[in-house]
């Protein structure tokens, strides 16, 4: 159970993506965060890396990291590229060519030509080049794929995928820099909403059906005038196994929060899954009733089994709720060490008093239950 | 950002609770797993601890751990007690008395008297004694508490809590050891389903309302004959702030998966939350419409903000899906290192080819969108 | 297909219950509204009855109606009693004793003694005395009953019924006469919320399980101070076939709209149904998956088949939506007859222009579909 | 309150559409079924009409009906045309030209040219020609229209409509006559699924937004080989008020039951409604939370208020459930008259015994509630 060594480029202090990758890579204790070039501002990146425990493997830029790591016997086993989109190609290419495995944030490149080059390098070198379409990691998405592959719904006729939200619907907010860059061709290329969100739905259509998209036709619109790129698109497509596809993506769909969902219809069954409620997969075998497959139920596929961490019925995020008790305690302990008051918003962990009250309630329930439901004091004696 | 040192007692190889605590404690990189007495079989515990990287702080039993750790300057900051229920009291007591902070699995003790003793020790020593009612860690549960505390629903009139599942409904399975022990007074004490599940719902009622239970009346039944303890209970209760409570818990409710939910009704509003869909909190202000509060939305309470890790609309378990890409990659890399084929069920991470295909699709969408929706080849040239 | 003759007592102009009974009795064209004593104000009742087409069988009070009808050869076949609660006993008794079949609004009587008298009279005379627990008329409720009766869930262990709403939660509104009378012992007797709503849930528990309640224990509370009768109750009960029951009813549950629901758990399966979404019945056979039974699906029970009027997937209220087109047309036609403008809120029926536009769209879809999805004018020529 | 006179052409014995129209027209007692030519088999139609009470206004064909009715002073006020599609044009035209108001089943005609002719006749004669897009009759659909019209969501940017079911997904069943005719150009014209179902969704898009479709582009496919017409279509469209439209319709979407739904997104809000749960309308004002509008709530639009018949929280189909009690009673009474056993599937109406048991339960609840929740016998004395 020796951990693999993991490095990251990008994901500097204050970024959202950095913690997400650290959490993801660390969750199962399979990787150890070992090296990084975390910020385009060299010194900030080094300082932050040191604070995260990287020591002298906190680098000022990715070139330094590459040249230093490739000389080491204990070089990192995997490099995650989480820099701005336009730099993905160059960095991914360089690390692959120097013998590293890479996990690149999406989009892998800005052009098709660059993409082909990366594929060729990955193939030539034999190094792993993964791309972070993380939604395919859900246990029941993997089970859908396994069900389709083993023929549970027969030949796939049609896929209908969606990724529709309303978070960029406010015209008054369209020139806010936080939103505007997403519709700026100089920064995101030829497509906005489809490239940002729709592509997740399209990848999932391929992932689940095991078929690749061969051709497509799109209706793209900008509902907010100042945008030159689309904020809503409908894409019809065809797949190499014969499936027909429909895909809707939108960022102006007020009332929709996330909206990544997929429906797959085959000759002998249909499946439906939505990211907002990822623990249920709706399945109807032809001629039977709609049934609900639960994440974690017995006898799912190996693909599902190895990607679930909590028992059936729990929200998949239960470990994160659980972790919050630990973050409360970390704050409580640290505050004591530092001689300060703790953050009141963290002062919520259950205490010995709660454990005691529970025990008193258990005894009262048991006794009342035996005595025809009489009312009993449920408090521990010391709190009466 | 120096990590705190964390130790665990119990949670040996093959247990479910051990990985859950390691995941929970490690999630935010606040704790480092430093010491442990993981198994009642001394050597197995030491071996397993060493494999988990504990070195010479892998102990053969909790007594050894206690005496060794208390002599160290760098002693563990927090000890989690995850041993069989009947040993919680003794271990928790010993560590508290020797100056350690403790997180004890539920139930904290087997009797009220023991519970009172723990409370007194915690108060006398000033050490933290937390109990693991982990469901209170959900971001929106904390927000419910904050809303009630700041008066959003006025004085609380009534709480209705449930924890009803159907996993012990099969009479033919009742003598299966995996199920039977849960209804054996020798092992679980005076109550089965209420002590195991119902108590979570009751604690949550207290947590959310900020009121303690003062008295109760219970109707307990054993729907399966061989059981001497209850598998279904209805508990009516009263709280010290005047709230009326109803609580239903069951393990024979076929069709229910988990069923922890809570409804709180006040003078000026009502709230409803369910663990199976933890990202939505239903709120109706008196005289207005039912509205849906989403985890991660803007302007929630500090209690909610500090306990959420992914943006609005994502399932709270999204980081775990994301982590599955990393576990795939760990398997892929390790298999290469070990010169073996990788687990096919892990061979599902998105590849450079997927990144390339996505880019080709993006360009096709953009072009089709500009050209009145004509059909275009969506494949990268190298795959045509 | 000669219609039966139907009479009503009560349900005068402006009442809610009158139109409901007229609609219900007339829906399948099985009854003809023939006679009535609709109002305690004699002349108003006669006038209103005449306007409803009753002619000289519009009576001034129920005594007149009884004495006149019993002399006729073509007397009414069924009398509905929809008067204030306290008069149900007297009227029902009189009609039964004179040879009429009766459908009495709930509650049938104000006391148990009166109830026993009615039962005895019904048995002695052999006349039908029905009570209007109308929720048992839902197709899938009847199917639940049939499933339980034929053993689909085995011996019933537990029933959990609810009828919880929040429409009387406003303390400021508690003395509003529209609400207050419901909690006034002088008008409603010994119980408010349980007698008004909870009793529907309890009747449904009996209806579905085929078991009668033998004993019960209740926790009743008045959450609003001015009330002497309960606005929230939890009732535990036992049934003569061995089932355990739980029943929660509330009128202060802010955020709940109607909340009549029932869960039945047996030895080999569980069922769940809710009045707010009456077209789906959730069913889990022990050890299998939760499945969704749809109203109108093939091969349901005869009890379900004869009580459904629209095909699967339609809301059960579809005929009422459909009827609204007719009410629009009635208003349009009547306005023309009366030489006035029609109600603009009714001026919404689809017109020839809509039929024409639809046809143009159909042709455009067919042609575009054949021509690789080109854009086509979808308007009829005359509207271009 | 004199009823209008209503006539029907088509809808003969055993048809589904006939009873639906009789129910719809009769529901509010605004129309009286007065005349009809119900069957293309002359004598069968006359016999059936007589059994339905039409007397000598039961005609053998529509020509007879037309010539007889137009001579009467008390001619029918409205004629419903519910014959096979290909005859709609001819009949509708004839009645309109002779001074009758007409409600024509959908599709109004088989060609655009015929459609234009009908529109012209309707305009010239001034007679009402309505088309039965009945789904627009739902109360909350009308409220959506009112909300959009009064500006609640600002200028409409996008409409997304669906009508997707899976009832024609079985390839083995495709040649079954019950299904096959729906895909036969000789019988249905140029389009199958779009013309049958999709058109409802498109009409609803126009109805709700108040905008007409100007152009469209379609992707139509036949997922089952033997079909020459489409069983799945995606239609993009534009509307005359600037709205963009997307519409998906399918008959091979296994797992979907009915699937008529509509989402409307404007500059300042979004709306979502689904026919399968027609009592809830989801509304998000820009920058606020998703809220749930309930059919029947206070202060809705006049358009909504006049089209709802039951109070908030009830399923819209509640009156139909209620009516089932009456159909039970009709069967019970008729069976007695005819001296036969009643249909056991109808023998389910609540009886005096149920009314009595309810009263006993009410008293027991009230007493137990007063006496600290003691258990009491809940049975009426006569049943103990």
UniProtKB/TrEMBL annotation, chains A, B, C, D:
Ranges where the Gfo/Idh/MocA-like oxidoreductase N-terminal domain occurs: 5-133
Residues annotated as domain GFO/IDH/MocA-like oxidoreductase: 141-271
SUPFAM superfamilies: Glyceraldehyde-3-phosphate dehydrogenase-like, C-terminal domain, NAD(P)-binding Rossmann-fold domains
Protein name: Putative dehydrogenase
UniProt cross-references to InterPro entries, sorted A to Z: Gfo/Idh/MocA-like_OxRdtase_N, Gfo/Idh/MocA_oxidoreduct, GFO_IDH_MocA-like_dom, NAD(P)-bd_dom_sf
One of the record's GO molecular function terms: nucleotide binding
